[in-house]
Write a structure and sequence with these properties.
The complex is a heterodimer of chains A (about 90) and B (about 200). By secondary structure, chain A is α+β, with helices and mostly antiparallel strands. Chain A contains two helices and five strands. In chain B, strands 1, 2, 3, 4, 7, 8, 9 and 10 form an eight-stranded antiparallel beta sheet that branches. A two-stranded antiparallel sheet of chain B has the order 5-6. With about 200 residues, chain B is mainly β. Chain B has two helices and ten strands. Classes of the chains: A alpha+beta (about 90), B mainly beta (about 200). At the A-B interface, α1, β2 and α2 of A face β5 of B. β2 of chain A pairs antiparallel with β5 of chain B, so a sheet runs across the interface.
C-alpha cells in the first residue's frame, strides 16, 4: 500500500484535533503497528510423534515447520502440553 | 389577493440503499492481512490468506454497536449540555449451525487446541479438542454486498469470543446450534468499513 498521510497546508497547532482523514490514517497506522508487532518474533514449529497437527488460536501446526506468530508461541506450547502433543521449535 | 401557494415537496428516498442479504463472517489470527481491494469480495482470496469461514448459521450474522453515555447536566437547563460516551461495545453474534470442533472451540472462547491423530495400525483417526479458559484473540471480518453489488467489509483487528453457549440436542426440533459472541477488543479507530464503489480504471 502506498498511502500517504493526510496532506497538510501548514503545521497544525498541537491542540488542534485530528480531522476525519487524519483519524482514518492514524487508525491504519495503529493497525499496521499491531500487525508488525504480531509478526515480530514469529517462530517455526512442527508437531512430532503420533499426531498429525495441532490447532490453536487459528494457527495449525502440522508435521512440516509452520510459522507461529509470537503472541501465540507460549499459549500454543501450553496447549500442546495440555493435549499431550510434542512440539518442536526451530532454533 | 392570495399569496404564493403553499407547497409540500418531501425529499426523495433511494430504495437502492435499502440493503438485505446475509453477512459472511471470517476469522483469523490477529495481524492477518485482508485481501487487496480488488479481491475483497472473493472468498478464496480470504481463505488463501489464512482467514477461516465460519460456515452456515441459523439466522445470519448480527453486528451490535452499543455505546453507553453519561449526560452532563446543569441545574439551569432540563436537557443535558453534553452527552459523553462512557463505554462502547461492538459485538458480532450468530448461531453456528455447522458443528465442527473448530466452531465448538470458537464459540467456547477460542482457547482450546485441536490435536489430530491420523489413522494407523490399531489407531483410529481422531481429533481431540482440549478446552482452556485462556481465550485467544482473533481478527474478524463481516462481508456483505453493497448497493452497487460489490463487497462492503467490516474489519475488526481483534475480537474475543466470550458469550454464554447453550446447545440443545434435539431429536427433530432443530439442529445443534453454537451461539457465537465476538467482542471487539481494539480501539475503535482500528475498526473500519470498506466499501467498494467502482471497478478499477485499468
Amino acid at each position: 500500500m502506498t498511502e500517504q498521510p493526510a496532506k497538510q497546508q501548514a503545521a497544525p497547532a498541537p491542540d488542534q484535533p485530528l480531522n476525519a482523514q487524519e483519524q482514518a490514517y492514524l487508525g491504519k497506522l495503529l493497525a499496521r503497528q499491531a500487525a508488525a508487532a504480531a509478526g515480530a518474533g514469529a517462530v517455526q514449529m512442527k508437531v512430532e510423534g503420533d499426531h498429525e497437527s495441532l490447532s490453536y488460536g487459528g494457527v495449525t501446526v502440522g508435521t512440516e515447520f509452520t510459522t507461529v506468530p509470537a503472541a501465540l508461541v507460549a499459549p500454543l506450547l501450553e496447549a500442546a502440553a495440555d493435549a499431550g502433543v510434542t512440539i518442536t521449535q526451530e532454533t | 389577493m392570495a399569496g404564493p401557494p403553499l407547497v409540500y415537496t418531501p425529499p426523495n428516498y433511494t430504495t437502492q440503499n435499502v440493503l438485505y442479504g446475509v453477512g459472511i463472517l471470517f476469522t483469523a489470527v490477529p495481524g492477518t492481512a485482508v485481501p487487496s481491494d480488488q479481491n475483497l469480495g472473493v472468498a478464496s482470496a480470504w481463505t488463501s490468506l489464512g482467514w477461516a469461514y465460519i460456515g452456515a448459521t441459523e439466522a445470519g450474522v448480527t453486528v451490535t454497536f452499543n455505546p453507553s453515555t453519561q449526560d452532563i447536566t446543569i441545574e439551569e437547563q432540563p436537557t443535558p449540555v453534553a452527552v459523553i460516551v462512557s463505554t462502547a461495545t461492538l459485538q458480532i453474534t450468530c448461531s453456528l449451525s455447522e458443528e465442527t470442533l473448530t466452531n465448538v472451540n470458537m464459540a467456547w472462547g477460542n482457547g482450546g487446541s485441536i490435536a489430530v491423530t491420523p489413522a494407523g495400525a490399531g489407531q483410529p483417526g481422531k481429533s481431540v479438542l482440549t478446552l482452556s479458559t485462556n481465550f485467544a484473540s482473533m481478527a474478524a471480518a463481516v462481508i456483505g454486498k453493497n448497493q452497487s453489488g460489490y463487497a462492503r467489509v467490516l474489519s475488526i483487528p481483534t475480537v474475543m469470543s466470550a458469550g454464554q453457549v447453550q446447545t440443545a440436542y434435539r431429536r427433530a426440533a432443530q439442529q445443534r446450534l453454537y451461539p457465537l459472541t465476538l467482542n471487539a477488543t481494539c480501539p475503535f479507530s482500528q475498526i473500519s468499513w470498506t466499501d467498494l464503489t467502482a471497478v478499477a480504471t485499468s
